[in-house]
Amino acid sequence: QVHVVESGGGAVQAGGSLRLSCTLSGRTFSDNTMSWFRQTPEKEHEFVAVISWSGSQTHFKYSVKGRFTISRDDAKNTMYLEMNMLEPEDTGVYYCAARGDSIVYYKIEQYDYWGQGTQVTVSS
Fold first, then answer.
1. Residues 69-89: pLDDT tens digits?
2. Sequence-ordered list of residues with C-beta below 8 angstroms from that of 102, at least 6 positions apart, any chain
3. Counting beta carbons within 10 angstroms of the beta carbon of residue 50, is it exposed (0 to 12), middle (13 to 18) or buried (19 or more)?
4. Phi-psi region for residue 57, left (φ > 0), alpha (ψ -120 to 50) or beta?
């Protein structure tokens, strides 16, 4: 059985930092392209960042470039999203998604599995 579990969310003030983690079990982690999406009352599952299964490709939503970093540790079956200089507009539920090939996609429905999400709240 495949499980995707996000952690690390919380409440911070603008300018602060958070580090989200995502673990994937039930399939070979290194065979998966991994992404982060976020959901707000205004936007449904907005793309945030993606890292290819080799780690050689990373892509970011324009508004988070230079502030967010995505990485993966295949030995730990874990992906990370380091979020710095957080803004109130970054508030939302962050979802981790996994796709079992090397192709990079930007819509959550194109992924095989995703988790329950972790809440990030940034106050001004």
1. 999 999 999 999 999 999 999
2. 33, 52, 53, 54
3. buried
4. beta
Task: Return the exposure string of 61-99: e unless at least 16 CB atoms fall within 10 Å of the residue's CB, then b.
Answer: beebeeebbbebeeeebbbbbebeebeeebbbbbbbbbb
Q: Tell me the two tokens of residue 84.
A: 């710095």
- And the tokens for 29? 């982690």
46: helix, coil or strand? Answer: strand
The DSSP call for residue 100 is S
Question: Which pair of tokens denotes residue 53?
Answer: 């299964």
**% residues pLDDT > 90 (the chain):** 95
Phi and psi torsions of 76, nearest 5°:
-105, 5
